[in-house]
Design brief:
single chain, 353 residues, alpha/beta, Rossmann fold, 2 domains, eight-stranded mixed sheet, four-stranded parallel sheet, 11 helices, globular
């Protein structure tokens, strides 16, 4: 079973063949920009976001990831690397190896400062765990752009771009309420690793979003977002909650469930908490009902543009919210996959040099 899950995780490819790199970020940006909101002084409004055509110099930028274990983060890596090559800036990518390695990410951040990086992009492991490092960068005049994962309201970053913490939980809950109607279902919830803040926010908004329905959470399990770790989580959860008939969880959770369920007599429906290549393949195959998607590739491209704009002296907003969309069999039709996922032949790259 373990081997089968690992093969599933590593062999999936984007449905519909390879995705060509757009000539410019704006070519693939129109739909993404429609889902981007500027949040400033408590007010939400149009982002009016534009992508740069060129830069004044070859800026040196660090990009920090929690890990690159799954295709969700690989899509962010692709977006940053591809945009850096398009703009002619130098990017070094560092990954901590997992959500349990906050000290390593802090050290990586400090190493970027010591190496005289012009700007730092970071998908933080913890909402507040890097605040001290953020302040060091601010004091040194180094722009910091957080992306994908949330930071605290008062975290001293130059700008942030992400799906507001928990929004994807609400979106999934609302979709399930509409899909199931008055039907009663028992749900196993697996929102992500404990301690970082975002997984807890995701679950709380999901649970709150189910209010007024006959959908109930049988239990919630937290765990590392690797398929190998999620195999045990899914197996244990199925034993602990024998009446549960829906699993809602991280992309690796759903990948693990796809490997585990065929060996059981359980009929369990699957809803993902976010996108990756496996989610897309499962959706097309009818094995997964739906999942939220947050324009990973375009979000990464935009994050890099925010860093370069700050370096070039352009004004950038303090907070950009990405409004995710819920992908199901209907909304998938006609979707431009270049905005969401890396090409099927892309492998993680750690430098543009």
């Amino acid at each position: 079973m373990f081997r089968r899950a690992l093969l599933l995780a590593t062999s999936l490819c984007v449905v519909g063949s390879a995705l060509a790199l757009p000539a410019s970020a704006q070519d693939a940006g129109t739909k993404f920009e429609d889902h981007l909101v500027l949040v400033e002084n408590g007010q939400r409004g149009p982002a009016n976001f534009t992508f740069l055509d060129k830069t004044s110099k070859k800026w040196k930028i660090c990009a920090l990831f929690p890990h690159l274990k799954d295709s969700y983060w690989v899509s962010f890596d692709y977006g940053i690397i591809a945009e850096a090559k398009r703009l002619g800036v130098a990017v070094t990518v560092l990954q901590a190896g997992g959500y349990e390695f906050l000290p390593k990410q802090i050290n990586q951040f400090d190493d970027c400062l010591a190496s005289k990086a012009d700007a730092i992009l970071v998908a933080p492991i913890s909402k507040g765990g890097l605040n001290e490092s953020f302040q060091k960068a601010k004091d040194a005049g180094v722009p910091v752009i957080s992306f994908s994962n949330s930071v605290e309201k008062d975290s001293p970053v130059t700008s942030r771009i992400q799906v507001t913490s928990g929004v994807k939980g609400t979106l999934a809950a609302e979709w399930m309420k509409k899909h199931y109607g008055a039907e009663a279902h028992s749900i196993i919830a697996v929102p992500g690793p404990p301690g970082g803040g975002w997984a807890e926010d995701l679950f709380h908004t999901f649970e709150k979003g189910l209010a007024g329905s006959n959908l109930t959470v049988a239990g919630v399990r937290y765990g590392d977002t690797s398929v190998s770790a999620q195999l045990a989580v899914v197996q244990d959860s199925l034993q602990a909650y024998p009446d549960a008939d829906v699993i809602w969880g991280t992309a690796p959770t759903i990948e693990a469930a796809l490997a585990v369920l065929p060996g059981t007599d359980r009929k369990v429906e699957l809803v993902g908490a976010y996108e990756n290549v496996a989610m897309l393949k499962g959706l097309v195959a009818g094995e997964i009902l739906a999942f939220p998607a947050d324009y990973s590739v375009m979000q990464a491209r935009a994050a890099l543009n925010l860093a370069v704009k700050a370096l070039e002296g352009e004004k950038v907003g303090p907070n950009y919210d990405v409004n995710p969309i819920m992908l199901d069999a209907e909304t998938l039709k006609g979707l431009d996959l270049k905005s969401f996922l890396a090409p099927d032949d892309f492998r993680p790259e750690f430098s543009t040099e």
